[in-house]
Design a protein that fits this description.
By secondary structure, the protein is mainly beta. It has three domains: 114 residues, Lipocalin (Beta Barrel), CATH 2.40.128; 78 residues, Thrombin, subunit H (Beta Barrel); 106 residues, Lipocalin, CATH 2.40.128. It is built from three helices and 34 strands. The radius of gyration is 20 Å and the shape is globular. It comes from Salinadaptatus halalkaliphilus. This is PGF-CTERM sorting domain-containing protein.
Length: 380
């Protein structure tokens, strides 16, 4: 296999790998010149010295692409592009094989949320308060402005409507074709969670400590479920239940029809991660180091990781029986989804909030060290 990799030109693209040789253009010095607030934003315990002296595992690194801001956005692959946002305000489309830049779209503020693609259109939201719809070549189709910043609430598309939440306390339904508002529902707190849509119902959490179920067509409230902490993460739906975590430290299973509680698990730690479901098991991570695999019917713990990891703000992703999860110190971890065995970890220079995209032979994700990484599977 030809393992030669090369970056496209970018301000912080400093590593070119050719077979087992690495050309290093003084990344240590470069990282040390970036202010700590730019790299970490208060989201990591890693020191300036650790960040500036970090060196990646070259044996697994296919390529890395440097941006001018933190990369908390989770990438997606569509039409030959690896799409990922950065807090430098740019949504980039990279060649998944080489990391070369195909195109970039620049918003007026940082991009923390993750891009979504539907029917050949790219949707992405920004801290500039705006939801954008782009063609696959990066050309802007339309934009929709909300009343405040859009942080981690990624757009969700269903039946010709785009749903997104904003710090202005509203969840919006916008026409996917034209960008016109169809309805807006106001809560009593900012919305940082991405909406989940299932069978025509929109589920979205708010910093007013509640999870809402809304009619997708009209925005009419179906029910409201109250917790004792902010609900800043996306919900997951399986069968007749909705699963969501809260900063009150509890993970909830809620009846999808009437919004009543079926069960809850007290994790003892704030939950800043969205759950995921794989093979009749619900997986959820807590802020302080735990990844749980739960029975969806009872809330019983199938396993919790025994290997301590650092604080977690990332969403777990499960592919081919492997659970991938980033931490706030700078590692991407891989666990056996059935047993909880810790398989491996890959170090970056700062916090990993980005959830990876996993292909047959490559894992793509971002880091607060300002880089987008493409790494090999350990077995490849």
């Amino acid at each position: 296999m030809d393992r030669s990799k090369q970056h496209s030109a970018s301000r912080y693209n400093v590593r070119i790998r050719t077979d087992h040789q690495v050309v290093n253009i003084n990344r240590r010095s470069l990282l040390s010149t970036i202010p700590a607030a730019v790299i970490s934003g208060g989201c990591t315990k890693r020191s300036d010295t650790q960040s500036s002296e970090f060196e990646p595992d070259y044996d697994r690194l296919r390529w890395e692409y440097g941006t001018d801001g933190r990369v908390a956005s989770s990438p997606t692959i569509s039409d030959g592009h690896l799409l990922v946002g950065s807090m430098d305000g740019r949504l980039r489309a990279l060649d998944p094989s080489t990391g070369a830049l195909n195109w970039a779209f620049e918003a007026e503020d940082g991009i923390w949320s993750s891009p979504m693609v539907d029917d050949g259109v790219v949707y992405v939201s920004s801290l500039d308060s705006t939801l954008y719809a782009l063609e696959t070549d990066g050309t802007k189709r339309w934009e929709f402005e909300t009343g405040d910043s859009i942080w981690s609430s990624h757009p969700t598309i269903d039946s010709g409507t785009v749903y997104v939440g904003s710090s202005d306390a509203h969840v919006y339904a916008v026409s996917a074709d034209t960008g016109t508002e169809q309805w807006a529902y106001e809560t009593d707190g900012g919305i940082f969670a991405g909406p989940t849509v299932h069978d025509g119902i929109v589920y979205v959490g708010s910093q007013d400590d509640s999870l809402y179920a809304l009619e997708g067509d009209t925005g009419e409230q179906v029910w409201e479920f109250s917790t004792e902490g902010h609900v800043d993460v996306e919900a997951a739906v399986s069968g007749n239940q909705v699963f969501v975590g809260s900063k009150d430290g509890r993970f909830y299973a809620i009846d999808r029809e009437d919004g009543s509680e079926n069960w809850s698990l007290d994790t003892g730690s704030k939950i800043n991660s969205a759950p995921t479901i794989w093979r009749d098991t619900v997986y959820v991570a807590t802020r302080f180091s735990s990844l749980y695999a739960l029975d969806p019917e009872t809330g019983g713990v199938n396993w919790a990781n025994e290997t301590p990891i650092s604080p977690i703000n990332a969403d777990p992703v499960i592919v081919d029986g492997v659970a991938y999860l980033g931490d706030r110190v700078g590692y991407l971890h891989a666990f056996d989804a059935k047993s909880g065995t810790h398989n491996w970890k890959f170090e970056t220079g700062n916090a990993v909030h980005s959830s990876p995209v996993v292909t047959d032979d490559t894992i793509y994700f971002g880091s607060n060290d300002t880089y987008i990484y493409a790494i090999e599977h350990p077995s490849k």
